[in-house]
Specification:
This protein has 415 residues and is mainly β. The protein is 1% helix and 38% strand. The protein has one domain: TolB, C-terminal domain (Neuraminidase).
Length: 415
């Protein structure tokens, strides 16, 4: 049975009704702007920061809260997924979903889950590895091609790898699966694979890779001769895309698009500006949202707004350095941001062009209002569900759809 979480708003009073004794997060308040909500309140974050670092500019962290005015409801359309990780919206409104252990499945807008789709290369699902993000070919309606990221076993460790294949006509398997790119060097660890993937407007792929977490691999995020800790831009065949910022330079990997990243698990194109945005994990504190410019260095591990899990400084404890990009926004303590999308639907006009991010730590859905490339408000949705949200997408019907590590899929839409 679907669980319906209904939120009805009357000026300053919140009435929350739901099935099964659980509540969804929502709120009510007067607002001064249609898309910004109430920015007069304090930050949504009430926990003390882990560090004493100061932001580089006002509004870079702990921005004022906003509150959705429009009544909406969150419905659990299925609880039958197995560690879902990525969502791709099919042309007919269904969803193709990766599951961490190594299979895909299709979910209808009503929540019916298909049998596992097989035929993919073997994944290493230990730790943070497995079958990760996916995207559809721009011509998927005719060619049925799917692209995905996974953690691959090799002789001397594991890699973040990219593969492609064709969804069979009966939708039960991936045909002719081929690995097209490997982010070398390999490392014997099970953390920080990155794993998001999307197409750009030129028909090339943007892929995120992690720096594999350990102190011994961290410096490779700064190395232009390593595939770790990067955004790479490749062709559908896995070759470096033309026009990349480092093309033609010696001792530099031509596929690199940006570098100095820790573990990017969110990628999205802004629907109006066309800019590429990402989010990435910090260590203890310092989760980031970045506006990506080709060829730029985003600082890890040279600068960070977080600290080591042991409590010490990361490197020299710097948060700013000339030539290194500042995050548009950061969190301390962490929210552990994962998949993200800009809202482009018509179901909730109040959310138009807002950035929604699936959060794993203090689990919730993050809503960020962004104006002129600055975050102007933050809201936390579905906190009381206590689910680790892994990815979020906008459906063909204009609703938001989100998956959780526990196997749930939510539809969030106007009531």
């Amino acid at each position: 049975m679907n669980k319906i979480l209904s939120i009805t708003i009357y000026v300053a009073t919140v009435f929350i009704a739901c099935n099964d004794g659980n509540h969804a997060a929502a709120g009510a308040a007067d607002a001064t702007a249609e898309n910004a909500g109430d920015t007069s309140g304090n930050s949504v974050e009430t926990r003390a920061p882990n560090t004493s670092y100061k932001p580089a500019f006002p509004g870079q962290t702990r921005i004022g809260r906003v509150t959705t005015k429009t009544p909406y409801e969150a419905v659990v359309i299925t609880s039958e997924l197995k560690n879902p990780w990525g969502i791709a919206v099919l042309p007919d409104g269904r969803f193709l979903i990766t599951q961490k252990q190594g299979t895909m499945c299709i979910v209808t807008a009503e929540g019916k889950v298909s049998s596992p789709i097989t035929g993919l290369p073997a994944v290493n699902s230990r730790g943070q590895g497995g079958l990760l993000g996916l995207t559809l070919d721009p011509s998927f309606a005719s060619n049925k091609m799917v692209y995905w990221v996974f953690s691959e076993n090799v002789d001397n460790g594991t890699l973040t790898s990219v593969a492609k294949g064709k969804l069979s006509s009966d939708e039960k398997r991936i045909e002719n699966a081929t690995v097209i790119y490997r982010a070398t060097p390999a490392y014997n660890g099970n953390l920080h694979y990155g794993g998001r993937i999307l197409f750009d407007k030129t028909g090339n792929l943007i892929v995120s890779t992690g720096e594999r977490s350990d102190k011994e691999t961290r410096p490779q995020a700064q190395s232009l001769n390593s595939g770790l800790g990067k955004l790479v831009r490749i062709t559908p065949d896995g070759k470096p895309a033309s026009g990349n910022p480092f093309s033609g330079q010696s001792n530099v990997r031509p596929e690199i698009y940006s570098y100095g990243h820790r573990n990017v698990q969110g990628l999205a194109w802004h629907p109006e500006t066309g800019d590429l945005w990402e989010n990435e994990y910090g260590p203890q504190g310092g989760d980031e949202v970045n506006l990506i410019r080709p060829g730029k260095n985003y600082g890890w591990p040279t600068i960070s707004y977080g600290e080591e899990y042991s409590g010490g400084k990361v490197g020299e404890g710097n948060t700013q350095k000339e030539g290194l990009e500042q995050p548009v926004y950061y969190w301390d303590p962490v929210v552990s941001p994962s998949g993200m999308t800009f809202y482009t639907g018509d179901n909730m006009p109040e959310w138009k062009n807002n950035l929604f991010i699936a959060a794993l730590n203090k689990p919730h859905l993050i809503r960020l209002v962004i104006e002129n490339n600055k975050v102007t408000g933050e809201e936390r949705l579905l906190e009381q569900e206590n689910q680790r949200f892994r990815d979020v997408a906008v459906g063909k019907n204009g609703a938001l759809y989100a998956v959780t590590d526990a196997g749930k899929m939510y539809r969030i839409a106007k009531k």
